[in-house]
Amino acid sequence: MLAIPAVKTAFGIDLQDKLGLHLWLAPDFSLYQVVTTMFVHGNFGHLFFNMFTLWMFGSVLENIWGGKRFLTFYLLTGLGAAFLYSVTSYFEILPDLRLMDAFLAAPGADTLMQFTQHHSFIVSEYINYDMYRGYMGFEQTFNQFANQPDNKLLLNDLTKFVHDYREYFLNLRTAVGASGAVYGLLMAYGMMFPNQLLYVYFFVPVKAKYLVVILGVIELFMGVQNSPGDNVAHFAHLGGMLFGFVLMRYWKSQGKGYY
User: Fold this and answer.
1) CB atoms within 10 A of CB 155
2) What is the pLDDT of residue 204?
3) Strand pairing of 40-41 and 2-3?
C-alpha cells in the first residue's frame, strides 16, 4: 500500500495520475488502473483508516476463508467498486460532455453559448496552472468573439481551448484507495456475523448487520447528494458492498457459504 503525497514529494512523481483510476474515456486512463487504484491512497489518514478496517475485519475473514479465497474476494469487490464508480461518474458528467461535443462538432456562436451557459468550468491555478492561464485567455477571447461572432480566428482559438479543456475535464476524476474492497469486507462480515456487537467510536454498541445497513444508506445518500467539494467516491464504496453481497450469495448457492 502507498500513501501518494509521500512518494510524490520524494520523487516528484504523481502516482495518483499514474496509478489512480481515471474514467475509461480519459486520455490518462490505462486498464491496469482498475487494479492499482486499490493499492494507492490520497493521504496517510486515508491509508490508516483503510488498513485499520482491513486488519480489524479482514483478519477474521481470512482466518475462516483462507488466503486464496480472501484475496479473491478482496480483488473482486475492488473491481466491482471501480466498475460502479466509473459508470456513475460517466453519467454525472455526460451532460457536460454532450455540450462540449456539440460545440466541437459544429463550432459556432449558438453551440458555444449553450456550452458556456450550462457548464461550470473547473479550473484553478492550484490544480493545473497551464489550464488556469488558458481559461483566462479563453474568457478574453470569448468576450471579443461576442462582439465579432463572424471572426474565424477567434472561433478557432475558442475551439482549441474547448478541445484541450475536454481532455483536462475527463482526467479530473481520479479514484484512489482500497475503500471499495474494504466496504465489501464489511458487507461479508455483517452477513457472517450479523449479531456481533461492534463499538462505533469505541463507545456505541451496534450489531454488525445494522452497521452495514447504516453505512450503506449513508453512502447512498452522500453519493446522490453529490455535494460540491465532496471528494469521496461514495459509489465506489457502494460498489464494493454490492459486489460483496452478490459474491457471498453466489458462494452460498454453490455450497461454499459460511453464513
Assistant:
1) 18
2) 80
3) parallel
The more confidently predicted of residues 139 and 45 is 139
C-alpha to C-alpha distance for 76 and 242, rounded to whole angstroms: 11
94's torsion region: left (phi>0), alpha (psi -120 to 50) or beta?
alpha
CB 79 within 8 A of CB 34: yes
- Helical (H) or strand (E) element with 102: helix 67-105
Greater model confidence, 11 or 65? 65
| Domain edges within the chain | 2-89+174-253, 91-172
Copy the grid coordinates of residue 240.
464494493
72 has pLDDT over 80: yes
CB count within 10 Å of CB 241 equals 28
> Is residue 203 predicted with pLDDT exceeding 80?
no
Comparing CA positions, the residue from 91, 90, 85, 48 lying closest to residue 232 is 85
Q: Are 21 and 176 in contact (CB under 8 A)?
A: yes
Query: What confidence score (pLDDT) does residue 5 get?
Result: 53
**Using CA atoms, how far apart are residues 219 and 38, in angstroms rounded to an integer?**
19
Q: How many CA atoms lie within 13 A of 231 on its CB side?
A: 11
CA distances from 253 to 87, 204, 257 (A): 28, 35, 7
Q: For residue range 22-53, what is the model confidence (pLDDT) as tens digits? A: 999 999 999 999 999 998 877 788 788 888 88
CATH fourth-level superfamily of 2-89+174-253 = Rhomboid-like (1.20.1540.10)
From CA 236, how far away is CA 239, in angstroms rounded? 5
